[in-house]
Amino acid sequence: MRSAALRVEGLSWAPRRGTTVLHPTTFDVAPGHVLGVVGANGAGKSTLLRILYRYLRPTTGQVLLDGVDIWAMSAQDVARSIAVVLQEQPADFALTVGEIVALGRTPHRSGLISAGDGDARIVRAALARLDLAAFANRMFGTLSGGERQRVMVARALAQEPRLLILDEPTNHLDIRHQLGVLNMLRTLGPTIVTSLHDLNLAATYTDTVLVLSEGHPLACGLPSEVLTEDLIAQTFGVRVQRQTLVPSGNAHLTFHL
User: Which of the residue ranges 18-22, 92-96, 146-150, 243-247 would you say has the lowest mean pLDDT?
Assistant: First the structure.
């Protein structure tokens, strides 16, 4: 699966008659790397993601995918290049799990051309990767919230995007599947931008962390350099203590009110 270089330059957004929700933000994500976006509720995380997958047109700035502004691309090219998994999923799809995952292949078809053997192989691989092969014939509406979330990640994988955007991908997942999904994301191939509430997961599973506060970018860089006790206290209003776990060597944050 291919990955893209993502360049965000001076990106901001405000409603036509309202205050600015996202202030000018600039960052780069190398091909195949994972960027975690963290911040308190209302920090602008979801707004940033909506701009990245071209749901919102930025007030200022550009989103460049391999040097090409996504607003200069056709809608089909964007759909082939960028996949998104949202935080909340509807439960009333009258489709099976396999049929929903197969929808990820839609941008790669032209006209009335039906799915072929190649599409079926990609769908089966996506189902297997998310441990969903046994659910292929289950109706989507019968699944739990965590199972539905995994189905939507599988659909995004079937899309074979160069950029994968996830809004709280661990929402509704139990601990085993949280760790499983985040471990898997690092091996998928596409460049990834994901919002995360859990700072320990962000510190462990991302290459770069962007911290937002009230729509302002406060810091962007390596998790070990960005997720400092002082910055977390400033952003979230809680005191933390940074610890190093032995023998893994991973940083772990403990929180105190």
Answer: 243-247
> CA-CA distances (angstroms) from residue 176 to 2, 96, 99, 227?
28, 24, 26, 24
Sign of CA dihedral 240, 219, 31, 130: positive
pLDDT for the residue 253: 62
Q: Is 82 exposed, middle or buried (0-12, 13-18, 19+ CB in 10 A)?
A: buried
Q: How far apart are CA 243 and CA 246, in angstroms?
A: 10
SS3 state of residue 88 = coil
Computed over every residue of the chain, the mean pLDDT equals 87
Residue ranges of alpha helices (H) inside 57-133 are 75-81, 97-102, 117-129
Spatial contact of 182 and 192, defined as CB atoms under 8 Å apart = no
Interatomic CA distance for residues 119 and 116, integer angstroms: 5
Contact of 193 with 140, CB cutoff 8 Å: no
- The pLDDT tens digits for 96-153 are 999 999 999 988 876 555 556 788 999 999 999 888 999 999 999 898 877 888 899 8
